[in-house]
Amino acid sequence: MRRDVFQAIADPTRREIINMIAHHPLNVNAVAENFEVSRTAIYKHIKMLTECGLVVITQFGRERFCEARLERLTEVIDWAEQYRKVWTERFDSLENSLDATDSPKRKPARKK
């Protein structure tokens, strides 16, 4: 099954894992210790993040470290950007409409 970035960020636990490892890699056990669910559950979340390309697992001796690959999030940014533009245009249009219909009662009085 092909996984995508949107599936990865859909879960709050996976988003928190990404936040934890965004600045520096962490040992898989260190990640798991921050959650009140089983290590197996965390490993499944990490596996999903790995399948989506948001996390890379690196082996150092006996330890495995999770490292974030945040450049994959550009797919989400690009998708959301199109809607930001639409909503910005709609709010600008609403503001212009309100300004055009604004009555003198609603405008603040000018000081002389």
In words, what does this structure look like?
GO terms for molecular function: DNA-binding transcription factor activity. It comes from Niastella yeongjuensis. Residues 1-88 form the HTH arsR-type domain. This is Transcriptional regulator. Pfam families: HTH_5. With 112 residues, the chain is α+β, with helices and mostly antiparallel strands. The chain folds into two domains: 5-69, Arc Repressor Mutant, subunit A, CATH 1.10.10.10; 72-100. 54% of the residues lie in helices and 12% in strands. A three-stranded antiparallel beta sheet has the order 1-3-2. Strand 2 (55-60) and strand 3 (63-68) form a beta hairpin. Helix 2 (12-21) packs across helix 4.
What is the molecular shape? elongated
Specify the helix fraction band: 40-55%
Strand/helix succession = HHEHHEEH
End-to-end C-alpha gap: 71 Å
Return residue spans where pLDDT drops below 50 for at least 5 consecutive residues. none
Instruction: Specify the number of helices.
Output: 5
Alpha carbon gyration radius: 23 Å
Domain module tally? 2
The side-by-side strand order for the widest beta sheet comes to 1-3-2
CATH superfamily of the largest domain: Winged helix-like DNA-binding domain superfamily/Winged helix DNA-binding domain
For the record, the CATH architecture of the largest domain stands as: Orthogonal Bundle
How many β strands by DSSP? 3
Which short descriptors sum up this protein?
three-stranded antiparallel beta sheet; DNA-binding transcription factor activity; WH-like_DNA-bd_sf; Transcriptional regulator; Arc Repressor Mutant, subunit A; HTH_ArsR_DNA-bd_dom; elongated; 112 residues; alpha+beta; 54% helix; 5 helices
